[in-house]
Amino acid sequence: MISVLMLTYNREALVVRAIESVLGQTFADFEYIIVDNGSTDRSGAIAEEYAKKDSRVRVLHREKNGTIGIARNMALDASKGDYVAFIDDDDWCEPDFLEFLYQLATENDAEVAICGAADKVFDEKLVMTPEEALIELMWRRRYNMAFPTKLFGRRLADALRFPEEGVYDDIALMYRLLALANRVAYHGLPKYTFYRHETNNSAWTTDHSRLNRETLDEYLHAYRERTEWLGGMFPNSAAAFRYFEWSFMISMVEKINRLKIPDCQGQLDGMVRELQKHSDEFMNGGFALDFEKGWMGQYVL
């Protein structure tokens, strides 16, 4: 019924916890596809040990480490479930993670179901149109861009191809999947834990001093593309989508200045010019938060 997809790369100290959290699920009708993304430690061998003990586990091996997108596409191509869920090899899920998401999807006839995580707990339910779900996504209060915590119906999974270049595939894809869903069901009880540590792919989002030029370029390009794509699909919310792009920019402007990040001066100058150009709409469009207006006054205007 469900394909659980995970890639692992040199996480021998953490991957056992992730694997056992999946194999301990109360919902038993799943396949668990693990892609060993060219590990040089025992991560792939550990996965194979579990495959010998549980027929639901399949391990695919890549000889060389590739991008997250390459490995996830490999897992997608091998998956057969009516639904697809994702887990990262350094995280873990609660025993009823799959059951919770499956019931949330089926009871609400939703192609996307979203649960809460340990750092985002809201005991509330929302059944949303794609447009409503996207606005909620952009505010990032209840759920974020990450693929874990979400269950996707097969129709969306078949349309899903991860970009095979770049590092941050979630920012390039998540909004497109929500936009294409018939409806999105959310219940914010925590069924998943993101383990934050220094080697996280997204470590810079909690330690902003790690921000660098390449990361910022990828985000800025993805957000520009997102604004244009969503504005064309949902013109009534185009002003909101423009705001969310500028909100990211002013956040980065503040961090680069406050933390004195030396690697991003060219991007800083470009973001300041863009914010100056659209300052009236940003400041008076009805979306900007008070602290963002303060940052605009301090760093831009």
State the main characteristics:
18% strand, nine-stranded mixed β-sheet, 301 residues, 9 strands, 12 helices, Spore Coat Polysaccharide Biosynthesis Protein SpsA, Chain A, alpha/beta, 2 domains
Classify the helix fraction into a percent range. 40-55%
- The proportion of residues in beta strands is 15-25%
- Number of E-state strands: 9
- The CATH C-level name of the largest domain is Alpha Beta
* Morphology call: globular
DSSP helix count? 12
Major sheet attributes: 9 strands, mixed
Which value, in Å, is the CA radius of gyration? 20 Å
CATH architecture of the largest domain: Alpha-Beta Complex
The name of the CATH topology of the largest domain is Spore Coat Polysaccharide Biosynthesis Protein SpsA, Chain A
**Structural classification:** alpha/beta
* Chain-averaged pLDDT: 93
Task: Give the distance, in angstroms, between the N- and C-terminal Cα atoms.
Answer: 54 Å
Domain module count:
2
CATH superfamily of the largest domain: Spore Coat Polysaccharide Biosynthesis Protein SpsA, Chain A
- Helix-strand pattern: EHEHEHEEHEEHEHHEHHHHH
Low-confidence stretches: none
Description:
The protein has 301 residues and is an alpha/beta fold. The chain folds into two domains: 2-193, Spore Coat Polysaccharide Biosynthesis Protein SpsA, Chain A; 207-300, no CATH class. It is 47% helix and 18% strand. Strands 1, 2, 3, 4, 5, 6, 7, 8 and 9 form a nine-stranded mixed sheet that branches. Strand 1, helix 1 and strand 2 (30-37) form a beta-alpha-beta unit. The chain is globular. The protein starts with a strand and ends with a helix.
